[in-house]
Write a structure and sequence with these properties.
The protein is 71% helix and 0% strand. The protein is mainly alpha-helical and 295 residues long. Helix 8 crosses helix 12 and helix 10 packs across helix 14 (273-290). The longest helix is centred in the middle third of the chain and has 28 residues, at 102-129. Mean pLDDT is 79; it is low at 1-9.
C-alpha cells in the first residue's frame, strides 16, 4: 500500500481509503460468487452502446452511463428478458406462438422491452450523477420516439418505479469507474483521464478482449465449455478489470515506471503480476489494433 502521505488524495485519509478498498474487494467477491450464468450478456457491445450513446447525446455525465449499465444488469427487465430467452432456448420455441421461429421471438422480446429498460436505467443513473441536467419524462419519451418506439409517459414512469422498488432503492452499485478511481487514489497517480479513455475502449471491445484472454489462459484457440464456464469468474472480476485498465494507462503514460505501478497494484489488490501482465497485454493489443496510429 502507498504511504499515508501519498494517500491523502482529495481529502481522503489513508484509513478511509483502505476501508473503502476492502469494502470494494468484498463486494467484488460477492458479485463473483452470485453472478448468474447470463451475467455477461448485459455487457455486450450491442447492449452497452445504446446506453453510452444516449448519455453522450443528452450531454450527461459519462459516469452515469457506466452506472446505468450496472443498474440494467440488476434490474427486473433484464432478468425478465434473460429468463424469457432462456426458457425459449430450453423449449426451442414459444408454445403460445408456435409459428414463430426462436430467433424471431428473441428479437421481439428485446425489441419490446430493451429500449424502455435502457431509458429507465439512464434516468435513474443520471439522477445520481447529474445535479443540473436530468432526463425528465418528456426527454425520455422523445428519445424513445426517436428510436422508433411509441410509449406513454406513464409507461416510462411505471418502469422506472418498478426498477427502484425491485432494487429496494439501493442504487450505490460499484461500477468499473469506482474500482479504477479507488486504485488511482491509492497509487496517488495522475492517470485518471487516460485510464477513463482506456476503460471506454475496453468497454466497447469487451467481448473480443475476454475471448482473447480466454484463449491465452486456456492455451488453445478453441476453449472447452468447462473452460468457458470457469472463465466467467475472470470476466466478471471488477477489481481485475480496474487493475488491467490502470496498468495499460500507466504503460501508455510512462513505460519506464510501468513495472513499479504494476508492483503497487499487486501489493494493493493481491492480484499476481503474471495475471496483470497477461490482461494488460491483451487490452493493449486490442487497443492498438483499433487505433493503429495511436501514440
Amino acid at each position: 500500500m502507498a504511504s499515508s502521505s501519498q494517500m491523502m488524495i482529495s481529502g481522503i485519509s489513508a484509513e478511509l481509503l483502505t476501508d473503502f478498498l476492502v469494502d470494494l474487494s468484498e463486494k467484488n467477491k460477492d458479485n463473483l460468487q452470485n453472478a448468474p450464468k447470463w451475467a455477461g450478456v448485459f455487457r455486450e457491445r450491442a447492449v452497452i452502446e445504446p446506453i453510452l450513446q444516449m448519455t453522450k447525446n443528452l450531454g450527461l455525465n459519462p459516469e452515469a452511463g457506466y452506472h446505468a449499465i450496472e443498474i440494467l444488469r440488476s434490474s427486473p427487465p433484464s432478468r425478465f428478458m434473460c429468463n424469457r430467452i432462456t426458457n425459449l432456448l430450453i423449449q426451442d420455441q414459444d408454445p403460445t406462438i408456435p409459428e414463430q421461429s426462436l430467433d424471431q421471438m428473441i428479437v421481439i422480446i428485446l425489441d419490446e422491452h430493451f429500449p424502455l429498460a435502457v431509458v429507465a436505467c439512464v434516468q435513474i443513473a443520471c439522477k445520481l450523477w447529474s445535479h443540473f441536467k436530468l432526463v425528465d419524462l418528456n426527454t425520455a419519451v422523445s428519445y424513445l420516439h426517436s428510436v422508433g418506439h411509441t410509449v406513454t409517459k406513464q409507461a416510462v414512469l411505471d418502469l422506472e418505479l418498478m426498477v427502484l422498488k425491485e432494487l429496494d432503492f439501493r442504487l450505490q452499485i460499484p461500477t468499473p469507474v469506482t474500482y479504477v478511481d479507488a486504485l488511482l487514489e491509492a497509487l496517488a497517480d495522475q492517470l485518471r483521464q487516460l485510464c477513463c479513455d482506456v476503460l471506454l475502449c475496453f468497454t466497447y471491445q469487451r467481448t473480443k478482449i475476454y475471448e482473447t484472454l480466454l484463449m491465452v489462459m486456456a492455451e488453445c484457440p478453441t476453449p472447452s465449455d468447462s473452460q468457458r464456464e470457469t472463465f466467467m469468474e475472470v470476466s466478471e472480476d471488477s477489481m481485475l478489470l480496474a487493475v488491467g485498465v490502470i496498468a495499460v494507462g500507466a504503460y501508455i503514460h510512462d513505460v519506464g515506471t510501468w513495472e513499479k505501478v504494476v508492483g503497487e497494484l499487486r501489493h494493493i489488490t493481491g492480484i499476481s503480476r503474471i495475471s496483470i501482465f497477461k490482461f494488460s497485454h491483451v487490452i493493449l493489443m486490442h487497443a492498438l489494433a483499433d487505433y493503429p496510429n495511436a501514440t
